[in-house]
Design brief:
Blueprint: H1 5-22, H2 27-41, H3 48-66, H4 70-76, H5 78-91
Helix pairs in contact: 1-2, 1-5, 2-3
């Protein structure tokens, strides 16, 4: 069963919250973020402001996958993770 828009946003937000709270993650989480972003950007009804945040998250995900130290990468993004989580609260 495919996830609807709200489910995808909730899952995306949950992963970002976990990265923010735990300061650690895994390659599979970055891959999941990438898949969610791609799916959400295909939604024609999505607001442009959401698309710009999704583009940033896609870059974060790709950089995390290519990082030699995933936990340091997450630590470097702590402030940004907080901003993204807050922005999704405003979009929903």
């Amino acid at each position: 069963m495919p996830l609807n828009y709200e489910d995808q946003i909730n899952l995306l937000t949950d992963i970002l919250k976990n990265h923010q709270a735990d300061c650690c993650g895994s390659p599979s989480e970055y891959e999941q973020l990438g898949r969610l972003v791609k799916s959400l950007t295909l939604n024609c009804n999505i607001d442009q402001s959401v698309k710009s945040v999704l583009k940033e998250i896609e870059e974060y995900s790709q950089n995390g996958l290519n990082s030699t130290n995933i936990n340091q990468h997450i630590e470097n993004y702590q402030m940004t993770l907080s901003q993204w989580v807050s922005s999704f609260k405003n979009f929903s």
